[in-house]
Amino acid sequence: MDAAPITMSGLEHTFGEGEAGKQVLFGIDLQVERGSLTVLMGPSGSGKTTLLTLMGCLRDVQSGSVRLLGTELNGADEETQIALRRRLGFVFQAHNLHDSLTARQNVLMGLQVHGRGAPEHHRRSVSHLLETLGLGKRMDYLPANLSGGQKQRVAIARALVSNPEVVFADEPTAALDKASGHAAVTLLKDLGRFRGTTTVMVTHDPRILELADKIVTLEDGAIVRNEAPARAGLAR
């Protein structure tokens, strides 16, 4: 397996075909280190979400190379991609919770999706995650009785409960207040430090940039900056 969980070389992507085609990614070269928090930034339409979905086996690689957890995605069959997705966690802007299930049950479903049962120690993990994200008193609430930010925190817990090797997050803090957003991203950082979980996050939220290990900025489908954030005055 590659030392880095994600490597890309010469990655390009086009939507549509022929004269109607529009190229949205150009010659992307990027390596994401194990256990790191990498933030993708850039204006709307710069290619951030497209890049995220290509890394996460949610879109077929057309041109160039993407290696995820030691497997080349360019040309990978559906069975291979499904097996890889079981090792990943996803957090999207839409929380996609099941309305008929409580917060606790929605998070437990994250284990079932990965082919795991829910013995007592899993239930304790769910409770701990929800408490960490400030939902200890709302575990048995249905989504209709949760705020938008609370629903998003449930979705984050669902993505993390199976201990994924890589987490892909698209604007996970957009619906959260400063304290909740900071707590959620700090949890991702802690998972990287203690379990080696790698996180790639698309965000426009400047409040969490100080937590990033690397900030990758895209413009017009190309990487224009790839650097560690300024940490003046911050303990490393």
Explained architecture:
It is a single chain. With about 240 residues, the protein is an alpha/beta fold. The protein folds into 2 domains: about 150 residues, P-loop containing nucleotide triphosphate hydrolases (Rossmann fold, 3-Layer(aba) Sandwich), CATH 3.40.50.300; about 60 residues, no CATH class. It has 6 helices and 10 strands. The chain has a 6-stranded mixed β-sheet with strand order 6-7-8-3-9-10, sandwiched between helices. Helix 3 packs across helix 4 and helix 3 runs parallel beside helix 5. It is globular. The two termini are about 30 Å apart. The C terminus is likely disordered.
Instruction: Look at the structure and give the mean pLDDT.
Output: 89
Q: How many strands, which pairing sense, and closed or not: the largest β-sheet?
A: 6 strands, mixed
The geometry reads as globular
Name the CATH homologous superfamily of the largest domain. P-loop containing nucleotide triphosphate hydrolases
Question: Strand portion, in percent?
Answer: 25-35%
User: How many domains make up the 3D coordinates?
Assistant: 2
For this structure, the CATH topology of the largest domain is Rossmann fold
Strand order of the largest sheet: 6-7-8-3-9-10
Note the gap between the termini.
29 Å
What is the H/E string?
Answer: EEEHEEHEHHHEHEEE
Q: Which architecture of the largest domain would the CATH scheme give at its second level? A: 3-Layer(aba) Sandwich
Structural class: alpha/beta
